[in-house]
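USER: My hope is that you can spare some time for a protein that puzzles me. I am handing you a single protein, as its sequence and its fold in C-alpha cell form. Walk me, if you will, through where the backbone shape changes along the chain. The protein I mean follows directly.
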Amino acid sequence: QVQLVESGGGMVQDGDSLRVSCTVSALSDGAYAMGWFRQAPGKEREFVAAVSSSGGIIRYADSVKGRFIVTKDSAKNTMSLQMNSLKPEDTAVYYCAANSVGSGAATYLWTRRYDYVYWGQGTQVTVSS
C-alpha cells in the first residue's frame, strides 16, 4: 500500500513564499515519479510541476515557471515545492501525486492527472492580495 503524506501550505500574502512537501510511505522500497497539481474552487485540477524518479527531469506549468521550484530526495522519496512570488491566483488545494516506476524508467515523468495512480489528501494554499 502506498500513501502520500503532504505537509506545509497555509495562508500568505501576495508576493510571499511558501513551501509544501510530500513523502511517499510504502510497505516496500521503490522509486517514484512525482508531481504537483492544484485545484481552485470551481475549476479543474491542473498540473503544476512534475519530477522523474531520479530527480533529474523536471517540468513546470507555464503559469508557475520561474516562480516555483520542485526538488526531490530520491533516497527518501520526498518531494518539495518551493513557491515564490505567490499571487492570489495561486490560491488552491495543492495535491501531490506519484507513480511507481522501475529502474528503467528513472527519467520518466507525467504531466496529466489521469496518468497518476497515487494521490495525497491535498493541502490548502491561500494567497491574499
